[in-house]
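Question (not urgent): is this output format expected?
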Amino acid sequence: MRTIDIHAHWYPEQWLQLFEKDGPKEGAKLERGAKGYTIRTERITNAFDDEFVSLELRLQGMRRQGVDLQALSLTAPMVNWASAGFGLALSQAYNDAASAAHLRHPEKFLGLAMLPMQAPELAVKELERCAKLPGMRGLYVATNVNGADLDEKRFWDVYAKAEELGWTMYLHPVDTIGRERTTRYYLKNLLGNPYDTGVAAASLVFGGVLDAFPKLEVNLPHAGGTFPWLIGRLDHGTKMRPELKHMKRMPSEYLRRFSYDTIGHDDRINANLVRLVGADRVLLGSDYCFDMGLADPVATVARIEGLTDSDRDRIKGGTAARLLRL
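Got this back:
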């Protein structure tokens, strides 16, 4: 059984070069320094080092962690902040680079496709294109698209195409909720990320997306954000509130429509997540190689209490292999 990390971030050098060249035309810039890189758009700043870029350093890190294969994904700022044309170009650059990484190391890397969701018609075309690229096995979508929630009908053609392809949609927070109140104490990440994921999941449930696309797989990062842990409140609100009278099922009935990673940062959280949704809906993730990620994701799985050996195998790679269609 291969150990598979489904939450591993990568900035390809080709993508950085395109961002560096054309980003300033849209108010963005890449700064290169002795200690690494800082990437800036109007609303998003992210700093990272060479381990986010170099495949050789990444392979060393994977050996250190005991991970056999990573599903590579872009991270902040992604591409939604850009104009439609530049967002498409950035998406294509990332997807082509991820496919090339797979061809170079076919047993080590797969790619999760980036799409210009700010232009859904272009996103569908890019999804169709990159689905033909070797090693591309899913799509990566922000938990909001420039403030728009994921149940907006303009995104539904993307979901329809993903369902048709059998591709899982992996969500990740970007430009998170409560921006004005999370500037201190790193709360934009500590709380902003899980709450934005919770809003995204609730929007997919309450907005009818999961009903409209019953075979669409959706993965929630960071142990599901707030969604699984507030499910009782969501159920109660569905029973009591007129805004949710359209709901025919309780939100808790959708818990297993999502899969979740193991980045809960607490063994009790991860154990309770397995109890809540089942071991077959939990996948190993590391958030490689951020300081907010897991330095030893395999050990994190080993510490989850109450699992059978087959449960651990599912979490370490069995379910990911199925979702990635290996």
